[in-house]
Design a protein that fits this description.
The structure is a single chain. About 75% of the residues lie in helices and about 0% in strands. By secondary structure, it is an all-alpha fold. It folds into two domains: about 80 residues, Orthogonal Bundle (Rna Polymerase Sigma Factor, Chain: A); about 70 residues, Winged helix-like DNA-binding domain superfamily/Winged helix DNA-binding domain (Arc Repressor Mutant, subunit A), CATH 1.10.10. The longest helix has 27 residues.
Length: about 160
């Protein structure tokens, strides 16, 4: 598979994963491009069955390196607003607020839970592949995802009930 095919097939998935990891559109673009540079210049041959998992692992490691260099997490206030195809400014504003709230809550999850949840939400990776990316057992992956979902649900419900009162 040549670079153009590899990039065309996986760039959007890598970008989305990077965006949800870091919360910054600009950093996600940088992580995406760096991921493909590392993949093409890396010492290993790409196996077609594991390319996506390999690219996600590179993205995750690049993000961790960035966080270690910065010594802090990227602020979620710079998250891009997603375009809303539905008419009506009230519905659009409400949807953007919900998305921002959800992304802020995702950013508060412990890093190991957030990574596992985001990889699982992609849907193309098995739990075994997620375990290889994260360097943990299948059981640990299942526990991390379960805890992340519970935490996310509880926090969103708590924030909704606070807003209603």
């Amino acid at each position: 598979m040549n670079f153009s095919e590899l990039y065309g097939r996986y760039a959007q998935d890598v970008y989305r994963f990077a965006l949800y990891l870091c919360g910054s559109e600009f950093l996600a673009e940088d992580l995406t491009s760096e991921t493909f540079v590392h993949a093409m210049c890396g010492p290993t041959d790409l196996r077609l069955g594991t390319v996506k998992a390999y690219l996600f692992a590179i993205t995750r490691n690049l993000y961790r390196d960035h966080v270690a260099r910065q010594g802090r997490m990227v602020a979620s206030g710079s998250l891009p607003e997603r375009p809303d195809p539905r008419p009506g400014p009230e519905a659009s504003a409400q949807d953007r607020q919900e998305l921002q709230k959800t992304l802020r809550v995702v950013q508060t999850l412990p890093e190991h839970e957030r990574e596992a949840l985001l990889l699982a939400l992609d849907g193309d990776l098995s739990y075994e592949e997620i375990g290889r990316i994260l360097g943990c057992s299948l059981t640990a992956v299942k526990v991390r995802i379960h805890r992340a979902r519970l935490s996310l649900k509880a926090e969103l419900q708590e924030r909704s009930s606070v807003c209603k009162t």
